[in-house]
Each structure stands twice: as C-alpha cells, then as structure tokens.
Amino acid sequence: MQPIDKRGSVPFDPHYDPITARALGPGSDYAPTYWIGTAGPAPEGDGPVRRDMDVDVAVIGSGYTGLSTAIHLAKEHGVKATVLEANGVAYGCSTRNGGQAQISAGRLKRSQWIDRWGLDVARGLHNEMVEAFALFRGLLRDHDIQCDPQDGGHYYIAHKAGVMPTLGAEAKLLRDTFGYDARMLSRDELFQTAVRDQEAQGAMWEADGLGIHAAKLAFGYLRAARELGATVHPDSPVQGWELKNGVHHLRTPGGIVRARRVAVATAAYATRSLHGRLRDRLMPIMSNSIVTRALTPSELEAVGIRTLSPLTDTRTLRHYYRLLPDNRLQIGSRAAITGRDAANPVHLNGLREGMARKFPALRGIDLDYSWWGWVDVSHDMMPRITGLPDVPGLFYSLGYGGNGVMYSAMAGRRLAQLVAGKSVPDLPIFNTELPHEGWRTPFRRLGQWGLYHLYHYRDERT
Ligand SMILES: Cc1cc2nc3c(=O)[nH]c(=O)nc-3n(C[C@H](O)[C@H](O)[C@H](O)COP(=O)(O)OP(=O)(O)OC[C@H]3O[C@@H](n4cnc5c(N)ncnc54)[C@H](O)[C@@H]3O)c2cc1C
Asked: What residue stretches are annotated with the FAD dependent oxidoreductase domain (predicted)?
C-alpha cells in the first residue's frame, strides 16, 4: 500500500460506525484512499472554530453537498456561509467514492420512478437530473476545477444474460419516453469498444457519464467556496444542538456557533445524536473499494478497457469499476455490515474475487490502495432535499444512495435555494421528508444481512 499524507493528530479509525459511534472527529487522518494519496495536499481551510460566534447560515458537513451549498448560497443569494466539518475537509464519502458521475440520484431506475409516481413526476425528475449534469459540468468549467474528468458516457454492464431484456426495455424507455440517448450493445460490441469484462453479456450505454478524481473535485469545491467568501472550519464537529428563541446553537469543541439557518449535509457520517428529527432516517451501508498497481501492457490488453468512463454492473450488490488515467484499475462493491467487521479479510477477498471473475488476468494482482466508506441510503431509495416544517431554519440534503458524485452539485444548489427562502421544483425529493424506519429500527442490520443473502442468490444463482 502507498503511504498517504498525514494531516491529523488522530489516526484514521477504519472501524467508525455511524450507528454505534458516539462522536466523529476532530483531528482524524483521512481514509487511506487512492484519491487522498494522489490529490496533493489539501488546500487551506479556515482552521477549527476557536470561539463562540454568530453566523447567518451554518452548513454542517464539508463534502460535495455542503461545499456546493456554500458555493450556491454565495453565488445566487449573496450569503457567505460558515461550513463546519468534523475532520479534514470532505473527510466522508467525497474522498472515498468511485469517482463515477452518473445521470441519477438514489437507487431507482426511470421505470421505477414511473411505477411510484407516474409519468409526469418521472419526467420532472429526469429533467432535474439533466439540468444537474449541466450544472455539474458548468461548475468544473467556471471554477477551473482540475479533477481529471474523463467523459464518454456510462456503461451499465449486464452481468448475466437474464438481465438483457430488462436493460433493453430501460434503454427503450429512456429513448422513447424521455428523449434521452441510451443504447444497447451486444457482448461483441462491448468487447470491441469498451471492455472485455468476461462476465458481461452486453450492456446499456448512457450518453452522460464522467470519471473524476474524487478528492480533486472536493478540494476544487473547497477553493471555489472560499473564493466566494464562505468560511470552512475543519476539525469542528457539531457535538450538541439546541434551538433557543429561533436560533440554532451548534456546540463544537472550540465554541458555540449560533445560526438562524442550518443546512445539514452530513450524508451517512453523522452520529445518531446529531439531531432527534434526523435520527434513523438513513441506512448507512458500507462499500469497499480497491485500486490495483498500474497494469502492464499485457494485462491492459487482456482487460481490454478502451474507455476511461465509468462502468457499473447490473447486480443489486453491484460492482462499479474504472480504468484510472495512470492505468490502475479501481473496483468497488458491497462490504461489511458493521464497522467492527470492516477489516475482515473476507470482504476484501470477496471484492478481489469479483474482479477476477471479470478479469481473470488480474487474479492475485498487487493492490496499491484499499478502503471503505459509508453510503447514505434512504429507506425508499431516493434522496431528499427539504426542510422540517416543525423546526424553523433547519434544512437537509441526504440519501443519495451511492449515487451522489454528480447530483450533490445540484442538491447543494437546491439546498441553498431552500435556505434562502426561494422555491424549488414541485417534486417528491423536495416536498416530502426522508421516511423513518419506525419499529424496524432495532432490526435493521439483521434485515440487511437477510437482504444481502437474498440479493446474492438473485444476482448469482438465478
Ligand atoms: C465507497 C464509496 C463509493 C462511492 N462511489 C460513488 C460513485 O462512484 N458515484 C457516485 O455518484 N457516488 C458514489 N458514492 C456516493 C458519493 O460519494 C456521495 O453521494 C457523495 O460524496 C456525498 O457527498 P456528501 O457531501 O453528501 O457527503 P460526505 O462527503 O460524506 O460529507 C459529509 C461530511 O459530514 C461530516 N460530518 C458528519 N457529521 C458531522 C458533524 N456532527 N459535524 C460536522 N461535520 C460532520 C463528515 O465528516 C463528512 O465529511 C460512493 C460512496 C462510497 C462510500
């Protein structure tokens, strides 16, 4: 494994688990990811909170969502936000993901949007995703964010023959109903043009899909937010929260931040104690990621990846993978259920085996990086960017379900609009709250264990 830049006074805790943890931060090193290992030093923040302060808008969490919220508050509403981060900037998912920008948010397909909400709402959601992708590209361009973007669409790889008809139907729906450029590739076409994934039976190609360098994107957002006047405080976890006379009192180790309006952008990383109204509205799901050493020319030939754009397979417990610009291969998939079990070799071996099934030439290859992170999955598989009617001045954007690299840019813009008292589109991701788990809460991990077995059976055996 490669060493990474050390930043904190506290070693990185690979077993952090948001369901059981009492605190997050301050002072932790980053997770040992390829992105942190290759991004160069993180740009300056504004240092931890060191005294009590009164601010207009506080944003909790400095991942893509929190930083995009700060950027759009400044750009579109003239508000200079104060961002509070428990550890280093973008300590959570935003420096641990697969770097795949896709034209989606949450875990549902277009056909599932139609089943749930009908065609008009599905069209509204689709338009929101199209607008979001344009906004995302615009942010990279306008703020000169050098995050090594690799354009070329997204490949949705059929991991078994049985899924090809469903994939074909989804591509047709995208074309005919949404007017979106999606098409099917046979196994031969896929092998010739994109990848020699030995499991693949064909694929659906979507026109939008971008591979990015995850940490460079986060650090680019940080620079942009600060240039626009936002203040970003690392190592300032919110450890207590009281609402007094319409003012939110956010307690950090260095002082209390008093804010009239608060935007929560903590994804899966917040502890359960952050705020009672937000507790248990997300299911934190762990995802593993590995990066190999650079592939040799013969390995590259065997793997046959002729694109740098993102690839995902059709398993429910899906694999997401890419060839990185330096010829390393990155691949990720499901991981442990609890933080305590995160480093169990069985999970790393499972991911290695998944890679070897796709690319037998890479069986046993040395790895340069291995890490994991928590994904914020909502109980109905769709995100929410909304306010709480009974708590004045509190808004949140949570629940992208492992599909937030692209959409978090727009989510931050929408969250900024809500904070500024402006209207947002009339869509269920904005006008309803994240559902709660209710009586199932104590059994959620047992349920997850059962579902993993069911999904594995469906993915591999049927
Ligand atoms: C392994 C992995 C792979 C992924 N791959 C992809 C992918 O390829 N494509 C894709 O679209 N999405 C992917 N995702 C999801 C994507 O990374 C996220 O949707 C996105 O980064 C969310 O950004 P965020 O800002 O909402 O959350 P985060 O980046 O997680 O930021 C939340 C921040 O809040 C901070 N925080 C928490 N509690 C507090 C507190 N009390 N006080 C102060 N700060 C606090 C945390 O430290 C953290 O930095 C992946 C996620 C993981 C874990």
From this structure: 56-418
- Cis omega (within 30 of 0) for bond into 284: no
Q: From residue 370, how far is each of 16, 335, 351, 436 by CA, in Å?
A: 16, 12, 10, 33
Distances (CA, A) of 340 to 21, 28, 253, 313, 347: 11, 18, 26, 28, 12
Report whether residue 157 contacts ligand 1, using a CB cutoff of 6 Å: no
Q: State the distance from the centre of ligand 1 to the C-alpha of 421, rounded, in angstroms.
A: 25
Q: Which residue's CA is the nearest one to ligand 1's atom 50?
A: 97
Instruction: Tell me how far apart the alpha carbons of residues 389 and 417 are, in angstroms, rounded to a whole number.
Output: 16
Domains parsed from the chain with CATH numbers: 150-210+285-378 (3.30.9.10)
Token output for 306: 């002729």
Q: Which atom of ligand 1 is nearest to the CA of 64?
A: 25
Identity at 290, one-letter amino acid code: I
Give the Å distance between the CA of 398 and the centre of ligand 1: 9
* Positions of the chain with pLDDT lower than 70, given as ranges: 1-8, 462
Amino acid at 450: G
The burial of 68, by beta-carbon neighbours within 10 Å (0-12 exposed, 13-18 middle, 19 or more buried), is given as: buried
Dist CA 191 CA 219 (whole Å): 35
CA–CA gap between residue 462 and residue 459 (Å, rounded):
7
- How far, in Å, are 158, 394, 430 from residue 417 at the CA level? 39, 13, 11
* Three-state secondary-structure class, residue 302: helix
Alpha carbon nearest to ligand 1 atom 3, residue: 97
pLDDT, one tens digit per residue, over 195-254 is: 999 999 999 999 999 999 999 999 999 999 999 999 999 999 999 999 999 999 999 999
pLDDT tens per residue across span 48-96: 999 999 999 999 999 999 999 999 999 999 999 999 999 999 999 999 9
* Angle value at C-alpha 450, between 445 and 454, nearest 5 degrees: 140
Q: Does residue 226 sit in helix, strand or coil?
A: helix
Closest-lying ligand 1 atom to the alpha carbon of residue 90: 49
119-142 helix and 214-227 helix, angle to the nearest 10 degrees: 80
CA of 176 to the centre of ligand 1 (A): 34
